[in-house]
């Protein structure tokens, strides 16, 4: 399985960050597969943000739940992350992951 995150570039404070993970080599509806979003702010460790399962069920980090939405497009084999009301503290490298397999990540910078 290969995962490729989209590149949103620079995002302004208060905007909605939207990222898409395109999956190849496997289906996002495969039984028992859970697709996660993880991020790593500069100088900090990895933070799990949430996940969507093979049946479409979602789970979110309690600290981000109020601002996070994860969805999927089965026709495109894609998983999408939306993070609302972003601040500079949301600056990080964002990864799409399936278990220990991650995409290359995409740098998101929140700045005015």
Would you kindly provide a written description of the structure presented here, covering whatever features stand out?
With 112 residues, this protein is an all-beta fold. It has no helices and eleven strands. Strands 2, 4, 5, 6, 9, 10 and 11 form a seven-stranded mixed sheet that branches. The radius of gyration is 13 Å and the shape is globular. It starts with a strand and ends with a strand. The mean pLDDT is 96.
Key attributes of the depicted protein:
single chain, 112 residues, mainly beta, 4-stranded antiparallel beta sheet
Summarize the structure.
It is built from no helices and eleven strands. The chain is an all-beta fold.
Task: Note the topology.
Blueprint: E1 2-5, E2 10-11, E3 17-24, E4 34-40, E5 47-53, E6 58-60, E7 68-73, E8 78-83, E9 92-98, E10 101-102, E11 106-110
Parallel strand pairs: 2-11
Antiparallel strand pairs: 1-3, 3-8, 4-5, 4-9, 5-6, 7-8, 9-10, 9-11
Q: What percent of the residues sit in helical stretches (DSSP H or I)?
A: under 10%
Uncertain parts: none
Radius of gyration: 13 Å
The proportion of strand residues reads over 45%
Average pLDDT level = 96
Largest sheet: 7 strands, mixed
Structural class: mainly beta
State the helix count: 0
Helix-strand pattern: EEEEEEEEEEE
- Measure the end-to-end span: 36 Å
